[in-house]
Amino acid sequence: MKYAVILGDGMADYPVDSLGGKTPLEVAKKPYVDALSRVSKVGLVKTVPEGLKPGSDVANLSVLGYDPFTCYTGRSPLEAASIGIDLKDNFVTARANLVTLSGGGEYEDKTMEDYSAGEITTEEARELINYLKERLDDGKYTLYPGVSYRHCLVAENGRVCGNLTPPHDISGRKIKDYLPKGDNSEKYLELMKRSFDLLKDHPINKERVKRGKNPANSLWFWGEGTKPKLENFTEKFGIKGAMISAVDLLKGIAILSGMKVIEVEGATGNYDTNFIGKAKACLDAFKDVDFVYIHMEAPDECGHHGDAEHKIYSIERIDEVVKTVVEGLKKTGEDFKVMILPDHPTPIAVRTHVSDPVPFMIFDSRKNLGGKVTSYTEKTAESTGVYVEKGWDLMQELIER
Known about the structure:
The chain contains 15 helices and 15 strands. By secondary structure, it is of the alpha/beta class. It has 2 domains: 2-72 and 230-398, Alkaline Phosphatase, subunit A; 83-225, no CATH class. The strands form 3 sheets. The protein has an 8-stranded mixed sheet, sandwiched between helices. Strands 3, 4, 5, 6 and 9 form a 5-stranded antiparallel sheet that branches. α5 crosses α10 and α11 runs parallel beside α13. The radius of gyration is 21 Å and the shape is globular.
């Protein structure tokens, strides 16, 4: 038996006025997924439990079958594992975004113009982070470069601040009310201010402005945490697993849970990613493993940017991924199950994550599980009456022991 999870990050949404009151899932042309839904189990699943913030960290852990209440210690430690940081028990980590702040005056009076600094390239970002490392690292606080705008700060013998705001939650807002608060917040704010002074006139940023791109003119810290403890995926479910993703968060989860990380050329974490390359890598991975998790960040990024057009486009390309994977598995003659879902909604209207239940569907090559819907959307999933309250229970249903 083979198993695939095909996850469109942030794919679920609310009705969008510009789409005639429909969601991107309802508008997108996804003939293969809709046809598959007719013979699949379809319903809603609560991937973000009450009391936890609706981050991709919590939600993806839940989808992967891990109870976030018992294993979640923060987002950045998961990403740190992907970057290759050897986390110690006394380390505190924080995600360090390269962001674009606008507006004159004091640092506190600026506006969060772009949480991703215009999707800055990894090459440009690495040069900027290394430039900051030379000037900000002090033996206790150390910066590590990651991918695109996503980087990491590690504090040895650090203290958790506990009140750091994700920059994608405050797009277009003044940052004054969202600056670090609580224990150790002064150090975070000091580093953020110093980073702005160092980056505002950096040659890379001057060149980006000339090309009409947003400058990466400040660090922004969030997603604090300490070393997590994840049960080995193979020991937990009795099968070998692999992860396909462009983002450090999912790669880190894979590393910490003992899953194989598969790199795909052209995987970007946005709507220009190599969708079909991921699907083909999944089929190839089944030569060595029994379970593959394909994570596609594109719908989430489009949701954060309020970009309905490209969110629809991303969903339509995910339909092609599903078709490639399912048809490829059919040709092997082996039994298989495929689960399709988002981790959380990222609605166009609010441009950030929400913790509403998400639609899921499970296809089993051996039998018809459907009969209740003719398409895969938020509304049809709700109409079935199927509801999984604890998201981490869904993996137990997918994988047969």
